[in-house]
């Protein structure tokens, strides 16, 4: 089992930037990939970005492509989400997710609020 703890959320004006972090602990040696999802009020949780843990290959939702960058630090077992050119519609709770062994794990979420 992998435990995930997110940090870095907050309030920012439109056009601004934030960087989210997600630190993994536990059975980190079996991580295949890590990613970010988000859930806005009244909406379903949606995919934002993910990164293959060994190759570093990354994938993005069309809505964030070109504005968000996912990266990892294998030594620290941490994944980051650099969010630039933020828009009010990016407001949501952002969740970190990992796939390790044969199990999915989720963090507790961190709130990101973008004011117009």
How would you portray this structure in words?
The protein is mostly beta strands and 116 residues long. The chain is built from no helices and eleven strands. It has strands at residues 2-7, 10-13, 18-26, 31-39, 46-52, 58-60, 68-73, 78-83, 92-100, 103-106, 110-115. Strands 2, 4, 5, 6, 9, 10 and 11 form a seven-stranded mixed sheet that branches. 34% of the residues are buried.
Break the fold down into its secondary structure elements and pairings:
Layout: E1 2-7, E2 10-13, E3 18-26, E4 31-39, E5 46-52, E6 58-60, E7 68-73, E8 78-83, E9 92-100, E10 103-106, E11 110-115
Parallel strand pairs: 2-11
Antiparallel strand pairs: 1-3, 3-8, 4-5, 4-9, 5-6, 7-8, 9-10, 9-11
Share of residues in helices: under 10%
Termini gap: 40 Å
User: Assembly type of the shown chains?
Assistant: single chain
Global outline = globular
Q: List how many beta strands DSSP finds.
A: 11
Q: Spell the H/E element sequence.
A: EEEEEEEEEEE
Q: Can you summarize the main beta sheet?
A: 7 strands, mixed
- Note the total helix count: 0
Strand content: over 45%
Unreliable residue runs = none
Radius of gyration: 13 Å
The overall pLDDT average reads: 96
SS-derived structural category: mainly beta
């Amino acid at each position: 089992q992998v435990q995930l703890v997110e940090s870095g959320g907050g309030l920012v004006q439109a056009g601004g930037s934030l960087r989210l972090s997600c630190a993994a602990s536990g059975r980190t040696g079996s991580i295949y990939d890590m990613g970010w999802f988000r859930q806005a009020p009244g909406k379903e949780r949606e995919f934002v970005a993910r990164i293959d843990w060994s190759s570093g290959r990354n994938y993005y939702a069309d809505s964030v492509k070109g504005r968000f960058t996912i990266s990892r630090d294998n030594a620290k077992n941490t994944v980051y989400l650099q969010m630039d050119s933020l828009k009010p519609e990016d407001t949501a709770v952002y969740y970190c997710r990992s796939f390790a062994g044969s199990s999915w794990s989720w963090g507790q979420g961190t709130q990101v609020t973008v004011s117009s």
